[in-house]
């Protein structure tokens, strides 16, 4: 069976060219967690896995205690578009945040639906003992039609009830169940096997999402939701007329930011301040709820033809010689030191 690894910033600097020469065919890297956390090693790992010509995948550690669609948007924004040799994006499902089984499954469905519409690829689910023991081993075909990355550190892994087989099997954390030393990695590292050939691994890299769900650009008045999410940081940067319309409306509402049609750090900070004031989820992402709240009662034009008033929470900073303004808002970053699902 083909062998691979998965990493996060806990492995620190790894040498991907050495890893590729050590009979490793694929690798996964932690990208995000919760609403706003980004693994500090992700971009380096993601780029260097491609340079080493490994099949690569990214995973999001799901937190059912906060909004699933916002987490999916955060995940997709950080990973960006997928291409040749990119494995299905992964939902790492191993914590409940204190919620019952039904709520966790509903959360996971919402996350998967949103993430698949953004990536236009099917998702893979990483789970194991958490599904069988914590959730009570539910059987649900919604999850079962998607690939399983099974976490089980023993010689006879048990597949959860929703699936009939595993696609990837994480069989060791580098310390249990006969691990191997991996060149290019200092210390232990999670290791997995793929249930197929190299050709089948490459075919998985181009697997479409199960049910087409294209995003249709909206047509209509300027205050209508445009059907895209404004996220920063993102590559390529989110820009265009829809961004400019939102920025202009925010200025009319009294927020100080450039209306240059580019969604950058100043726009994100203003968005976070607006979300905090309106009681929305504070994530700095202009999604449908934030857009509609911004344009609610837009006909009244409260500051049209008037000087934009100063707001007490507004501050400024300089980026590349340009003065930008932003509203202070606290965004909680959630992260855990290691995976909980190891049985």
- At CATH level 3, the topology of the largest domain is TIM Barrel
Helix content: 25-40%
Return the domain count.
2
Q: Quick one: CATH class of the largest domain?
A: Alpha Beta
Structural class: alpha/beta
With strands numbered from the N-terminus, the spatial order across the biggest sheet is 1-2-4-5-6-7-8-9
**Overall residue-averaged pLDDT value:** 83
Question: What attributes characterize this protein structure?
Answer:
TIM Barrel, alpha/beta, single chain, 17% strand, two-stranded antiparallel sheet, eight-stranded mixed β-barrel, 10 helices, 2 domains, Muramoyl-pentapeptide Carboxypeptidase, domain 1, 343 residues, 11 strands
Task: Give an account of the 3D structure.
This protein is an alpha/beta fold. It has two domains: 2-204, Glycosidases (TIM Barrel, Alpha-Beta Barrel); 241-327, Orthogonal Bundle (Muramoyl-pentapeptide Carboxypeptidase, domain 1). Helices cover 29% and strands 17% of the residues. It is built from ten helices and eleven strands. The strands form two sheets. It has an eight-stranded mixed β-barrel, surrounded by four helices. Strands 10-11 form a two-stranded antiparallel sheet. β2 and β3 (37-38) form a beta hairpin. α3 (68-79) packs parallel to α4. The longest helix is centred in the first third of the chain and has 19 residues, at 101-119. The chain is globular, with a radius of gyration of 22 Å. The model is unreliable at 211-219 and 300-338 (pLDDT under 50).
């Amino acid at each position: 069976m083909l062998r691979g690894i998965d990493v996060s910033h806990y492995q620190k600097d790894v040498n991907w060219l050495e890893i590729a020469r050590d009979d490793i065919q694929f690798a996964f890297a932690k990208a995000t967690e919760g609403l706003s956390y980004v693994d500090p090693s992700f971009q380096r790992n993601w780029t260097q896995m491609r340079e080493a010509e490994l099949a690569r995948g990214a995973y999001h550690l799901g937190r059912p205690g906060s909004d699933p669609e916002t987490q999916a948007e955060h995940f997709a924004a950080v990973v960006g578009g997928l291409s040749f040799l990119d494995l299905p994006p992964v939902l790492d499902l191993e914590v409940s945040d204190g919620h019952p089984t039904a709520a966790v499954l509903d959360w996971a469905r919402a996350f998967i639906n949103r993430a698949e519409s953004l990536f236009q690829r099917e998702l893979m689910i990483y789970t194991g003992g958490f599904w069988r023991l914590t959730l009570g081993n539910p059987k649900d075909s919604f999850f079962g039609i998607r690939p399983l990355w099974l976490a089980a550190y023993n010689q006879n892994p048990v597949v959860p009830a929703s699936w009939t087989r595993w696609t990837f099997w994480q069989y060791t954390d580098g310390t249990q169940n006969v691990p191997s030393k991996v060149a290019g990695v200092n210390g232990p590292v999670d290791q997995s096997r793929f249930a197929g050939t190299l050709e089948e691994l490459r075919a998985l890299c181009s697997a479409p999402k199960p049910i087409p769900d294209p995003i249709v650009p909206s047509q209509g008045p300027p205050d209508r939701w445009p059907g895209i999410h404004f996220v920063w940081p993102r590559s390529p940067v989110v820009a265009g007329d829809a961004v400019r319309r939102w920025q202009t409306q925010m200025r009319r509402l009294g927020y100080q930011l450039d209306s240059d049609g580019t969604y950058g750090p100043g726009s994100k900070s203003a968005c976070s301040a607006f979300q905090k004031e309106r009681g929305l989820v504070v994530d700095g992402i202009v999604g449908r709820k934030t857009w509609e709240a911004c344009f609610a009662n837009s006909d009244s034009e409260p500051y049209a033809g008037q000087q934009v008033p100063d707001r007490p929470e507004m501050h400024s900073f300089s980026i590349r010689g340009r003065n930008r303004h932003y509203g202070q808002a606290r965004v909680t970053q959630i992260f855990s030191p290691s995976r909980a699902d190891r049985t």
